[in-house]
Amino acid sequence: MSDVALVAGVSHQTVSRVLNTPDAVRETTRERVTQAMAELGYRPNLAARALARARSPLLGVISAGEARFGPTHALHAVEEAAQAAGYISTHVPAISPTQAREATDHLFSVGVAGIVVVAPTHELADRIVARRRDTPVVLIAAGAPISEGVSVVAVDQELGARLAVRHLAELGHTRIHHLSGPPRWFDAHTRVIGWQEECHALGLEQGLLVEGGWDAADGFAATNRLLAAGASVEAIFAANDLMALGAIRALRMRGLDVPGDVSVVGFDDAEGTDFYLPPLTTVRQPFAHVGRLAIEVLLTMLDGESATSRSPEPELVVRESAASPRR
Questions:
Q1: What is the CATH number of the domain that holds 66?
Q2: Kind of pairing, strands 88-93 and 235-238?
Q3: Above pLDDT 70, what percent of the chain?
Q4: pLDDT per residue over 15-39, tens digit each?
Q5: Are residues 167 and 269 in the same domain?
Q6: Cβ within 8 Å of residue 189, ≥6 positions away
Q7: Cα–Cα distance measured from residue 199 to residue 184, given in angstroms and rounded to the nearest whole number
Q8: How many other CB atoms sit within 10 Å of the CB of residue 271?
Q9: Which alpha helices (DSSP H) does 183-317 contain, by range?
Q10: Is the pLDDT of residue 50 over 50?
Q11: What is the DSSP letter of 121?
C-alpha cells in the first residue's frame, strides 16, 4: 500500500480511504490512486484486512432475481462497489418467501459481515428485515423506512417523477397522464406520488393514472386503455423507458405523432433510448453512485454508526420525444 501511496502522491491513509470509503475521497484523487494500483498490479490482501478489521471479508447481496434494467444495474453496482472496497460479495436470489428465508440462512451460515438487499417490493424487504438478527442491512428500496440496524439507500424516485412532470409543464402541457409500473413495487409507487405532487404543486389538472407492468407491451396496452377512455391526450409520463416505447408504438398506430401530437417522457435512461424514434426524453438514475453509497453506508454501520437514509438525485435527460403542444 505504501508503494501505491508513493506513486499516486498521496498519504497511506488516503489509499486506505479509497479502498474502504471511496465516496469520501475526491474523484480526481480516487482516480490517481486506482491508476497507481493498476500500474503496480496491487491487490488488497483480503485475509489480512479481515484480521485487521476483526470482521468477515464477505458481504451478502440479496435480490429478487429480476432481470430488469433497474434491479440488474443496482445489483451490478453494489457488487462492483464491494469489490472496490476490498470485500467479496456473495449474491443470492430470493424470488419466493421460501427463497428469502433460505437466502438469509445461507448468508448467515457463510458468515457475512452485512447484507445489501436490492428490494423492488415491500414483500422482499419485509422478509429480509424480519430475519436479519443482528446483521446490519442496507435496503435499496425507494420509500422504505429505516429502522434499527436497517439503512435505506435509493435514488429519489419522487424527485425523478417531479422532474419529468415539470419538464412537460414548462413546455406548456397542462394535463399529464401517467402510465405506472406495478403498484407493489417501491419505485412505481414513489413515482406515482411524485407525479401527483408535482401536478398539484404546479396547479395542473390531474391526468389519468393507468397501471401497468414494466414491459413495452404493458406501455402499449396502457396507452390503448388511456385512448379508449376518451381523454384528451397531449402528454404522457411513463414509469420506465420500455413502457414509453410501447406508448409511442400505440400512439403511432392511432395516427398520432410523437412529439407533434403527444409528448412522451420515460424513466431510467436505459441503453438505446437515444436511438428510439424519436430519441427519448427520460430520467437517468445514478446506479453506480447508489452501489457505492450502499457499500459505504454498510461499512459505516459495521463501524458502529446508526442506520441512515441516503437518496442520490436523478437527472433529467432532454432529447426529442417531448415538445410544446399544438394549439
A1: 3.40.50.2300
A2: unpaired
A3: 93
A4: 777 766 666 778 888 888 778 877 7
A5: yes
A6: 143, 183
A7: 22
A8: 10
A9: 186-201, 216-228, 241-253, 287-302
A10: no
A11: B
Which CATH number fits the domain that encloses residue 19? 1.10.260
Task: Count Cβ neighbours within 10 Å for each residue of 30-49 and write b for 16 or more, e otherwise.
Answer: bebbbebbeeeebebeeeeb
What pLDDT is recorded for position 38? 75
Q: Is 308's pLDDT higher than 60? A: yes
Average pLDDT, the chain: 89
Rounded Cα gap, residues 324 and 327, in angstroms: 9
For the segment 68-97, the average pLDDT, to the nearest whole number, is: 85
C-alpha neighbours within 13 Å on the C-beta side of residue 261:
12
Mention every residue, 6+ apart, whose C-beta is less than 8 A from residue 87: 46, 57, 58, 59, 113, 295
Task: Please count the residues of the chain.
Answer: 327
Q: What value does the mean pLDDT take over residues 135-153?
A: 93
Cell numbers that stand for 313 in this block: 438525485
**Among 212, 312, 308, which Cα is nearest to 266's?**
212
Whether 320 is in a domain gets the answer no
Integer Cα distance of 280 and 216 in angstroms: 14
Query: Could you tell me the residue range of the domain that residue 127 belongs to?
Result: 49-155+293-313
The order of strands in the sheet holding 150-153 is 88-93, 58-63, 114-118, 137-140, 150-153, 309-310
Task: Count CB-CB contacts under 10 A for residue 253.
Answer: 12
